[in-house]
Write a structure and sequence with these properties.
It is built from 8 helices and 2 strands. By secondary structure, the chain is mainly alpha-helical.
C-alpha cells in the first residue's frame, strides 16, 4: 500500500496522481524503465508559445463566417435583409466577450467588465429598436444593471480580499439567491404579478443556507481536511 509523499493520503493501486493534492505518483520501477522523452525540435526555440494575436485572428475568422452565411441566406430569396441583423448583432456580442481577453490576456479585467455589460446593453437596445419598441427594454436594462452590480461586488471581493475558495463559493451562491429576489421584485413592479416575492424566496433561502454551511466548514481546517479526504480518496 502506498501513500502520497506530500499529504499522506492512501493511494489506490495504479494511481498516477494524488486525488487530494494532485502530486504526481512515481514508483521506482517506473523511473528505471521510463522511456526518454522525445527530443525537442532543434528548429523550435525553447519556451516558444502560440501568439495571442494568431489565436485572436483565427477566432475573428470563425466569427465572420456565420453572419456572412446568414446574410446571404437572408438576402438571396427576396433581395432584402431582416432576421440576419439579429444574427449579426449576436455574433458581434460574442466577439466582444471572446476576443479582448484572448488578445490582451487578463491585464484589463475592469475594462472587460465595463465592455461586456455595455455590449449587452447595446444588444438589448438594438433588439428594442429592431422590434419597433415592442420589447422589454426597461425591464431587461434593470436586470442587466442588477447582474452587473452583483458581478462587480464578487470581483472586488475576490481581488481586494484574501478570501478562500469556499468562502468565495458561498458568496457567489448567496449573490445568486439575492439576484433571484431582485429579479422577482423588478418583474413584479413592471408587470404586477405579485405584491410580494414568492418563488425567489426558495432559491434565496436554499442558496444562503448552503453558503452558511460552506463558511462554517471553511472556518474549521480539520473538518475541511477530513471532508476532503472523505470525498477525494
Amino acid at each position: 500500500m502506498s501513500y502520497c509523499v506530500k499529504c499522506g493520503v492512501k493511494l489506490s493501486p495504479g494511481s498516477k496522481s494524488c486525488p487530494l493534492c494532485g502530486t504526481a505518483v512515481i514508483s521506482p520501477e517506473e523511473q528505471e524503465t521510463a522511456v526518454p522523452t522525445f527530443p525537442r525540435n532543434p528548429k523550435s526555440p525553447p519556451g516558444q508559445r502560440i501568439r495571442r494575436s494568431t489565436v485572436a485572428l483565427l477566432l475573428e475568422l470563425l466569427l465572420i463566417l456565420p453572419p456572412a452565411v446568414c446574410l446571404i441566406c437572408d438576402f438571396v430569396p427576396d433581395r432584402s435583409l431582416g432576421w440576419s441583423y439579429i444574427v449579426l448583432a449576436s455574433i458581434l456580442l460574442a466577439g466582444v466577450f471572446i476576443l479582448p481577453p484572448v488578445w490582451k490576456g487578463k491585464k484589463f479585467l475592469p475594462f472587460y467588465f465595463f465592455l461586456d455589460f455595455s455590449a449587452v446593453g447595446g444588444f438589448l437596445a438594438f433588439l428594442c429598436a429592431f422590434t419597433g419598441g415592442n420589447w422589454f427594454w426597461e425591464s431587461s436594462l434593470q436586470v442587466l444593471l442588477l447582474a452587473a452590480a452583483e458581478v462587480y461586488i464578487a470581483w472586488v471581493v475576490r481581488i481586494k480580499t484574501k478570501i478562500s475558495a469556499l468562502r468565495f463559493a458561498a458568496l457567489i451562491l448567496t449573490e445568486i439567491g439575492f439576484f433571484c429576489l431582485g429579479l422577482e421584485i423588478l418583474l413584479n413592479r413592471a408587470y404586477h404579478f405579485h405584491s410580494m416575492p414568492v418563488w425567489s424566496l426558495y432559491p434565496l433561502v436554499a442558496l444562503s443556507a448552503i453558503g452558511v454551511i460552506l463558511t462554517v466548514i471553511d472556518r474549521d481546517p480539520a473538518l475541511k481536511e477530513k471532508l476532503a479526504r472523505k470525498f477525494f480518496t
